[in-house]
Amino acid sequence: MSPLQLFLILKARWLAAVVTAMAVVSLTIAVTELLPKQYTASTSLLISPPTTDPITNALVSSGGTITTVIATELDVISSDRVLLNAARSAGLDRDASLNARWNRETKGQGDYLAWVASTLRRSLDLRPTRDSKVVSLSFTNISPEFAALMANTITEAYVATTTDLRVEQAKRYSEFFDLRTKETRDGLEAAQSRLSEFQRNAGVIIPDDRFDNESSKLAELSSQVLALQATVAESQNRERQAHTLSDSTQEVLSDPVVGDLASQLAREEAKLEETLARYGERHPAILEQRALIATLQKKIDAQTNKVTSSIGVNAAVNIGRLDAMKAALEEQKSRVLHMASLRDEAAVLKRDVENAQRSYDAILNKGSQTNLESQNTQPTVSILQNATPPPSPSSPKVALNIILGVVLGGLLGLGTAVVRELADRRIRCLTDIESINGIHVLGSIARCTQPHTLISRRIWTVFSQKMRLRKRGRHLSDLLIGH
User: Fold this and answer.
1) Which residue from 233, 249, 264, 231 is spatially nearest to 309, judged by alpha carbons?
2) Where are its TM segments located (predicted)?
3) Less packed terminus of the chain by CB within 10 Å, N or C?
4) CA gap 415, 419 in Å, rounded
5) Residue 159 φ/ψ, nearest 5 degrees
6) Helix (H) or strand (E) holding 396
7) pLDDT tens, 275-309?
8) What is the pTM of this model?
9) Is 272 exposed, middle or buried (0-12, 13-18, 19+ CB in 10 A)?
10) How many angstroms separate the CA atoms of 365 and 381, rounded?
11) What is the pLDDT confidence band of residue 480, given thresholds at 50, 70 and 90?
C-alpha cells in the first residue's frame, strides 16, 4: 500500500481512526489513574574491601576485578540472610497482615520467612555505577515511609551481615589456630623432654664447651706426640753414636767430670813428658806418673761409660713417654669421637626443639592475629546516603503513559482505518483501479462540482499552456542563435 493510498484511506475514514485513538488515550489515562501509586526510596553504598590487612599490614586479594567484587556484593545484598535480617529488624516476621497475605497467596504452604524474603527481593532494585564501587539500593512500595524504612533497614542489615561474615570467618580461623597452637605446644614440650632426658643420660649439655676443650686437648696431644717422636729419634741416634764413638759424643764432651778428668790427664801427660826428659823410663817418678795417668784414664773411661749409659736410659725414657703419649692420644681420640657422636645426636634433638619452637611461634602469632580479626567489627561498607520518604511517586508515570497512549492510539487508529478499508474496499485513486481490477487506466476525467474549483483548474490550464509556449519559444531562439 502506497503512502497516497494510506493518506486517502485516512482522509476517508478519519473519524474511526480518531475515535479509536481517543479511546486508547482515555483508557490509558483511566488505567494510570486507577493504578496504585508506588514510591521508591534510595540509598547509596560505597563498597570498598580493604586492600591491606589492618593487623598484619599484608596485601589482601580482592578476589577479582572491581566488576566481580561488586557483582558478588550485589548477590550478598539480595541474599536471604540479608533480607531476613532486614525483615526481622523491621518486625515483618511478626506482622499479622503480612502473615494473612501469605496464607491467602500460598494457602499456608512453604516457609513464611522465605516468602517474606522473596517479596522484599521483588521490590528491591540494585544498580551499580559503571567502573565505580558505589551501589544504589532502591526499594519500592505504596507507602513512602515504608519504602524509606525498608531501604535503610536492608542497607543496615547488609552492613551488619558483611561484618558478621568477616568476623565469623576470623573466629573459625581463630578456633583452628587455637587447636593447632595446643598441638604444637605439646609437640614442643615433648621435643624438649627428649632433649633434656638425652642430656641427662649422656651427660651432655647443649651448648657445651667441653667438646671444644677435648678437641683442643687432642690437638695438643698430637703435637706432643710429634715432638716426642722427634726427641726419641734424636735420643736413639745419640745412643747409637755413643756406642760407636763414645769419646766424641756431645754428652761426653759436655760432661764436667769428664772435662776435669781430661784436663788432669792432659796436665799429667805434659808432666810425664817433662819428667821423661830428665829421667829415664825406669825412674820411680816416671812409673808413678804413668800409674797416675792410667788411673785418670780409667776414671775417664768409667765416666764416659756412665754418660753413655745415661744416654741409653734417656732414650728408653723417651720411648716410654712416647708410648704413654700415644696411648693417651688414642684414648683422647676415642673420647672426642664419642662426644662428637653424642653432640650430633643432641644437635638433632635440639633442631627438633628449634623447629617445634618456630612452628609454635608462627602458629601462636597467626592465632593472635586471627583473634584480633575476630574482634574487629569495623565495617568495610560506607553508607553515603540514607533513604528519605520520597515526595512524589515513582510510578505510574502519567506523562510517559499518556505519550505511550497517544502513540499506541495513533497506531491502533491507523490500523482500524486500514482494517475497515480492507473490509469495505473502495476505489479512491487510479492505483486502486489497477490493483483491484488488474487493468491499465488509459485516462481520467477530473471531477468538478464546485465553481471555484472549475475556475482554479481553468486558470492552472491557461498558465500551464503559456509556460509551455514560452519554453518552446526559448528553445527555437536558441536553435536560431546556434545556426
Assistant:
1) 249
2) 398-419
3) C
4) 6
5) -60, -45
6) none
7) 777 766 777 777 777 778 788 777 776 766 666 66
8) 0.54
9) middle
10) 28
11) very low
